[in-house]
Amino acid sequence: HVLTATGAGSAPAWEAAAAGGSFVLISNTTITDADSIDFSNVFDNTNDSYLFIGSMWKNEEDNEQIQIRFETGGDTWQDGSTYDTQQRYGTGGWGGTAINVTGGTQGCVGGLGNSGNDTGEFANFKLTIFQPYLAAYQYWHSDSVNKTFNGNTAWGYGGGSWNESTIVTGVQFFFNTNQIASGNLAFYRMKSS
Known about the structure:
Number of strands: 15
Low-confidence stretches: none
Order of helices and strands: EEEEEEEEEEEEEEE
Largest sheet: 8 strands, antiparallel
């Protein structure tokens, strides 16, 4: 319910929220020993934004980073030097280190460049992709928290762009050098009205 008012002189009232504007779960995937998690041909013009929530991701080796690539045409994963990422992250009581990648072959998620793989060391993140169905530059925002390879808690936030004016149909998640040993990935859609 939301608090509404009909104008001067009338009392506010609690009413049911208008339709639209909420996230709807599309899928929830459990990951085991995967090179990548591919969401192919999943974006269309009926939704405004898409949200991915990754929880308890464990990499096979220390010091890994979660990365993304976009798909176009329903079958082509884009790995040209057209991704720009701006992230901030911190760990061990200090913060403010920047990831500044221009012209990368993939996008970075949340500043997770130092994820550990020991007992209890996991990566968790949220990634929002905005209006991928537009034939324009594509933008994303992410935030994260994880345990680093030396056991410290780390956080990260930021975003990026894929600098091509092409409709995006999917997204691929992967660690920079090794497999995703385990984790969960929930996928949501959102229509603003």
